[in-house]
Design brief:
The structure holds two protein chains of two kinds.
Chain A lengths: L1 E2 L2 E3 L11 H10 L5 E4 L3 H4 L14 H18 L2 E3 L3 H4 L5 E5 L9 H17 L4 E5 L15 H10 L9 H9 L7 E5 L8 H11 L2 E5 L6 E8 L2 E7 L7 E7 L5 E8 L6 E7 L2 H4 L4 E4 L8 E3 L8 E5 L11 H9 L4 E5 L1 H6 L4 E4 L7 H12 L3 E5 L2 H5 L9 E7 L34 E5 L8 E5 L5 E8 L2 E6 L14 H11 L19 E6 L5 E3 L9 H6 L9 E5 L2 E5 L18 E4 L6 E2 L1 H22 L3 H30 L8 E3 L4 H21 L8 E3 L11 E5 L9 H12 L3 E5 L10 H5 L8 E3 L25 E4 L13 E4 L3 H5 L7 H20 L9 H10 L1
Helix pairs in contact in A: 1-3, 3-16, 5-6, 7-8
Chain B lengths: L2 H11 L2 H14 L15 E6 L11 H4 L6 E5 L6 E6 L16 H18 L3 E4 L10 H10 L12 E6 L5 H13 L3 E8 L1 H5 L6 E4 L6 E4 L6 H22 L3 E5 L5 H15 L1
Parallel strand pairs in B: 3-4, 3-5, 5-6, 6-9
Antiparallel strand pairs in B: 1-2, 7-8
The chains are: A alpha/beta, B alpha/beta.
Chain lengths: 882, 279
């Protein structure tokens, strides 16, 4: 049912509105609850009547307020929705929704989706089947003849994402032509751009039913060209005549960090504009893509594959071990380390490793066998940086940008007129333009170019007398750069100055992207996708099933389902297929007569029930407060609840904190014993350690928490300073994990008491079995001089259940790393039994045994602190003598 | 002792040290009761006076008389220990305060009673809770404090002693008449200390209010509580007048104390009243 712009899904609920007047009288007759108060002299009030019985009835405003809440609830149950066009477009019949789902629709994709859902909703109200036709080609195109319920259609639209290529409407028209039947309504949600098939599709649609085209107000724009130059990132942007006139581009690294941005303005009616993001060459070299700011769509992104990372530079190693500071490559290495991935090797090795640039010092010669490979590599776009030196001066080869005059020019030597020269200002067309050479950098020796050959080469830097210092010449797609000085400090100060770093970095901006960037001919298999663009222009890792592309096809590939746009890799070199071709044309869609046009920004119906329920709930909550207020209980209520919450929080926290303290062995010292698995032994250990803990608490300042049973293999032992390990009746070897744990425990300074318990019939040497695999240090019998005899109580023996047991300890020599404090004690006293007051132990024996336990814990906690007393008799004797 | 009363007593006992402390502080600031200041049976020296013929030779203080020409008689200060009984209202409405932050009437009554008891026992009098054997000496006050906590057994009025009634006196006047008459018949007198909460005095209630008597016996719903204020004030005044008249009739002068006021002035008034009685 519709009511103006409102649509009610359950209009029956509106009948409940009729009950509102009845509700009014009921509520009016019910007075609010009185305030309750205790009052001792109530007897004095007895018989009192106040004249006016105020609020016998609820106040009118309160009743109206509650009525409003009730009305909202009723309206909400009627499930209304706001649909401005509900009345006019609630027409139905077989509906065909055509969606241009290429990247050209991505900038306004939410509108596309909203329009499609609106169309499906209309069909839903008419209970008509929905058919869908997507114009962008897909790997498995949907059959437009498949009838969907509106709900299915909606969920399919909800999952629909734009494709990273443009629609192919001719093919869509073909697919539609293969289906039968006419439609009562055709909604064409278009990207607003024309293509070759638009006419065919329009004709086919018109043949099948009345068509409404939903067109966006502004069509998509695209970057048709992007490149990295030493001056920055340059991009060319194209629009349709109805595309927006102002935008901005931004250069990003592979990780998506923005490097810089520039504004783009289309002048007048121009359809193409270009812009440059000014960046220093070394930053520009890191640009991996350029995108239109604020516009989503695969076409709004241009990939710049060669900039994806640090250039890989090969240093051609002359071999031989020289003085490092005199090695030519040392300076280059230090200069480029932060900016490039460097690798040393021979020319062949480095070319095989796909070096983007080679640096060739004078000492490294180009062997005749390397020539062919180097030539090929240069043709493919390599950057060769050479340094002059005595060898080059006397015997130049052909891999130099200029012809050299034999010999060198020496400036400032004893036999020369000329003094060392500074470096001249860099020419404007040089990549080093803008760098200022330090005045104290001078050149003492250089190789000179034949003036005639300079015409073919580019001079990037000169000395102050205009003689060339750095020259460059393209070779194939590659570039050769020659420094007319040596790479070391013998000929000039340049390698010692910051200028060297700057110049080399700027030179490397050409690595792998001089004229034919990224398209080097390198033998290898097909192009494999690494990261693919989605329709919105986001790079995502390529799904593994993406088919590789043959090199022949790759050169001409345009974005399509078979060749999706994105980054591809072949033989270590990254290349890209972009969503938009370099000659992409964007023209507005022309529609034949008879097709109705509508904007895309239309609203769809908005369900209101949720809001109404929310509002009603809020009103009811408010009503509770009003009721409390009228009853005069609000302040007390608030105070009491605050107090209650405070109390709960406080006591809860205190309780928790307390519990945590007792259980946390890092907060409270706890004695530990190894769980043997034998319930009787474990119980004895538990009771024994409890008794010992109680004794400690009573007599010493050590106040341990309850003892804890631990599993050697699993528990973290490091928090327990003392570990008691009674021998089980049948000792077993420890698991590897437990061994490692125990070894670590002993190493970090824990104390372990192994108690063989002298269980009588127990086989041979239980301790040997128990400790098999543990790194057991040398042991010594604990004598009367041991710190254990005086750590707290003075003791001569260490009785347990066994009257005079043997007790062995790690020898002081072995424990020297721990200042002589033994980590391991082994004995047969069955102490836990004595501590727990086992039958057959006299009170005296138990007392002595507990004293031993106290001493043991003291040693565990204080180490050899009391060992000093060992010397007391001697000291006393000496004092007596004096 | 019923379990409920027992619980109440325990709850209150938790506060006893506080009450005792309040009382001690209060007693320390009070002017105090003096000795009897007349000669009589006692230990302390009071005065020498001239020997009179009827005294006989036995009473002559020979040591003093030897220093002069005349005979002297040594008189001692009269020490007649009296007993002060404290009666605290056990109604649930008495242990009530309109504002939880304010002390209850009962607690204030205990404070004043214990402070007074401290002063009295310092003066050598015996103090006791009504119905419990009175005591003298240092521990008497502590004992009294504990007796306050236990519900008082009903006991016959003590003979010829001082009974101090602490209550809000909202019970019907007839009830008080029987109680006071019984005391007067036994020769006792004392004072009535009417302790009131400010809410009971000022009646600050507004709007539709349900008044509940603590203990849950009566309840009353007023449509507009503020309109009942004057009527209530009149009735309260009438009740107070009746109680005062009753007290005067039987020798129990009445004092009014509000719990939002300090306890010291009331204690001073009480002391003034009692120092006559105990003089």
């Amino acid at each position: 049912m519709t009511l103006g712009p409102f649509l009610f899904a359950a209009p029956g609920a509106l009948l409940a509105l009729l009950a509102l007047p009845i509700l009014f009288f009921i509520m009016r007759a019910t007075p609010p609850a009185p305030a309750r108060t205790q009052f001792p002299p109530t007897r004095l009030l007895e018989g009192l009547r106040t004249e006016e019985q105020s609020r016998q009835r609820a106040p009118l405003w309160l009743v109206l307020f509650r009525m409003l809440a009730a009305a909202l609830l009723i309206l909400a149950f009627a499930r209304p929705s706001l649909a401005p066009s509900a009345a006019e477009s609630a027409q139905g019949g077989r509906t065909l929704i055509v969606i241009d789902d290429g990247w050209t629709a991505a900038p306004f994709w939410s509108d596309v989706r909203a329009a499609a859902i609106a169309a499906a909703s209309e069909a839903e109200r008419a209970q008509a089947p929905v058919f869908m036709l997507f114009t962008a080609p897909a790997a498995r195109p949907r059959d437009p003849g498949e009838a969907l319920t509106a709900a299915d259609a909606k969920s399919r639209i909800g999952r629909l994402e734009p494709q990273p290529w443009r629609p192919d409407r001719a093919q869509a028209a073909q697919r539609l032509a293969q289906t039968r039947g006419n439609f009562d309504r055709i909604i064409w949600i278009s990207d607003g751009l024309n293509d070759d098939g638009a006419e065919a599709l329009a004709a086919e649609l018109q043949r099948r039913g009345p068509v409404t085209a939903r067109l966006p107000s502004q069509t998509a724009r695209t970057i048709i060209n992007g490149s990295v130059t030493p001056q920055g990132v340059v991009a060319e942007i194209r629009r349709a005549p109805n595309g927006g006139g102002v935008t901005a581009i931004a250069a990003e690294t592979l990780e998506g960090r923005s490097l810089g941005a520039a504004e783009v303005t289309f002048s007048g009616d121009a359809l193409t504009a270009s812009a440059r993001i000014d960046l220093p060459p070394e930053i520009a070299a890191r640009a991996a893509r350029v995108r239109l700011v604020g516009e989503q769509g695969a076409g709004a992104v241009r990939l710049l594959p060669a900039g994806a990372g640090r250039p890989f530079v090969g240093l051609v190693d002359p071999g031989g071990a020289g003085q490092p500071l005199l090695s030519e490559l040392f300076y280059v290495d230090r200069a480029l380390q932060p900016y490039a991935s460097l690798r040393r090797g021979s020319i062949n090795e480095l070319i095989d490793a796909r070096a983007q640039a080679l640096i060739l010092p004078d000492a490294s010669r180009i062997a005749p066998t390397d020539r062919a490979a180097l030539e090929r590599w240069l043709d493919g776009g390599g950057l060769l940086v050479r340094f002059a030196g005595p060898r080059l001066a006397n015997d130049p080869d052909e891999f130099i940008p200029v012809r050299l005059r034999p010999g060198t020019r020496t400036l400032g030597s004893a036999l020369a007129w000329e003094t060392p020269l500074g470096i001249g200002a860099f020419p404007d067309d040089s990549p080093y333009a803008g760098v200022t050479a330090p005045a104290d950098v001078s050149v003492r020796r250089q190789v000179l170019a034949e003036p005639a050959s300079l015409a073919e080469a580019r001079v990037w830097a000169t000395l102050s007398d205009n003689s060339p210092l750095i020259t460059a010449q393209p070779r194939g797609r590659g570039l050769i750069v020659l420094f007319h000085i040596s790479a070391g400090p013998e000929w000039s100060d340049v390698p010692l100055s910051g200028l060297f770093v700057e110049v080399l970095r700027r030179t490397l901006a050409f690595a792998g992207r001089s004229d034919g960037a990224g398209e080097r001919e390198i033998t290898g298999g097909p192009y494999a996708a690494t990261r693919l663009l989605d329709g919105y222009g986001v790079l995502a890792p390529a799904p593994p099933e993406t088919a590789p592309i043959a090199p022949e096809a790759f050169a001409t590939a345009a974005a399509s389902p078979a060749t999706p746009p994105g980054l591809y890799e072949r033989a270590g070199v990254t290349s890209a297929i972009d969503a938009a071709r370099a000659d992409e044309t964007l023209t507005p869609l022309t529609l034949p007569e008879g097709i109705a046009r509508a904007g895309l920004g239309a609203t769809i119906e908005r369900p209101l029930a949720g809001w109404l329920f929310g509002a009603a709930a809020a009103l009811l909550a408010l009503d509770l407060f009003i009721a409390l207020m009228l009853a005069g209980r609000l302040p007390r209520f608030a105070r009491a609840s605050a107090a209650a919450i405070g109390a709960i929080v406080f006591f809860g926290a205190a309780e928790q904190a307390h519990a945590q303290n007792m259980d946390d062995p890092t907060q409270t010292l706890r004695l530990a014993y190894v769980r043997t698995g034998d319930a009787r032994i474990d119980r004895t250990s538990q009771q024994g350690l409890e008794a010992l803990s109680a004794m400690l608490t009573e007599r010493t300042s050590v106040e341990p928490g309850p003892p804890v049973a631990i599993d050697l293999a699993r528990d973290d032992l490091s928090v327990y300073p003392f570990l008691y390990w009674p021998a089980p009746n049948t000792p077993r070897r420890l698991s590897d994990q437990a061994l490692a744990n125990l070894d670590r425990y002993l190493a970090i300074g824990g104390m372990l008491l192994v108690d063989t318990r002298d269980a009588g019939g127990a086989s041979g040497r239980p301790a040997a079995t128990m400790l098999a695999g543990v790194d057991v240090p040398p042991l010594e019998l604990v004598g009367t001089e041991h710190v254990l005899t005086r750590a707290f109580y003075l003791m001569r023996s260490f009785p347990g259940r066994v009257q005079s047991p043997q007790l062995w300890a790690e020898s002081a020599a072995a424990a020297s790393s721990r200042d002589g404090v033994a980590a391991l004690f082994i004995g047969n006293g069955d102490w836990a039994a004595a501590w727990s007051g086992d039958a057959g132990v006299t009170a005296r024996q138990r007392e002595l045994s507990l004293r031993f336990g106290v001493n043991l814990v003291m040693v565990a906690l204080t180490g050899n602190y009391k060992a000093d007393q060992v010397h007391v008799p001697a000291l006393l004797e000496r004092m007596g003598e004096e | 002792m019923s379990s409920r009363a027992h619980l109440d007593a325990l709850a209150l006992a938790g506060d006893l040290p506080g009450v005792l402390l309040d009382a001690r502080r209060l007693a320390a600031s009070a002017p105090g009761l003096h000795g009897r200041r007349r000669s009589g049976q006692g230990e302390a020296f009071w005065q020498y006076r001239d020997h009179r013929a009827e005294d006989g030779a036995r009473l002559v203080d020979w040591r003093r008389s030897a220093r002069g020409e005349r005979y002297f008689v040594r008189e001692r200060e009269r020490e007649a220990a009296q007993t002060a009984w404290f009666w605290l209202d056990a109604e649930p409405g008495f242990a009530w305060s309109a504002d939880p932050a304010r002390t209850t009437k009962l607690r204030r009554a205990q404070t004043i009673a214990l402070a007074l008891a401290t002063l009295l026992s310092r003066g050598g009098e015996r103090v006791g809770a009504y119905g419990v054997a009175p005591r003298a000496g240092q521990r008497a006050v502590d004992r009294l404090a504990y007796d306050f906590v236990a519900p008082a057994p009903s006991a016959p009025p003590p003979k010829r002693s001082c009974v101090l009634f602490f209550s809000d006196f909202y019970a019907p006047v007839e009830e008080w008449r029987t109680r006071l008459a019984a005391c007067a018949d036994a020769g006792a007198n004392g004072a009535l200390i009417m302790i009131a909460d400010p809410a009971e005095e000022d009646f600050p209630f507004r709007g539709r209010t349900l008044f509940l008597e603590p203990g849950g016996r009566r309840e009353l719903l007023l449509g507009r509580a503020e309109t009942a204020r004057e009527e209530y004030a009149e009735r309260l005044e009438a009740q107070r007048r009746a109680i005062r008249a009753l007290g005067n009739e039987y020798g129990f002068p009445a004092l009014l104390h509000r719990t939002d006021h300090g306890a010291a002035p009331t204690l001073a008034l009480l002391i003034a009243l009692l120092s006559e009685r105990f003089a």
